[in-house]
Amino acid sequence: MAAPASGQDWNGSVSNLWFTGANWTPNTVPNSAAAAVSITNATNNPVLIDGAPTISTLTLGALNSLNLNNGESLTVAGPTIANNGNILIQFFRQFHRCDS
Predict the structure, then answer these.
(1) What is the pTM of this model?
(2) What are the residue boundaries of the structural domains of the chain, listed by start?
(3) Residues 55-93: pLDDT tens digits?
């Protein structure tokens, strides 16, 4: 049985880097197939993926941007990407969507 989704909201209180725990509420980096990620706070935007996280779902607000640079990747393992903002993928970067 799959783990229940765990909501994690961007607060951007420290920087614009994904893998900084204090940028998230609760204070932990979303990096599991159970992480339901919401980026709807425009503080410290764009959000920069500085690693290779796996998440369950992604909600991106209208005033928000998510950037993949420097060879990083993002895997969305669940069924939902709600993108009202901008997702910027630079050359040779990877974005994975896995249908369950």
Answers:
(1) 0.84
(2) 7-97
(3) 999 999 999 999 988 778 899 999 899 999 999 887 655
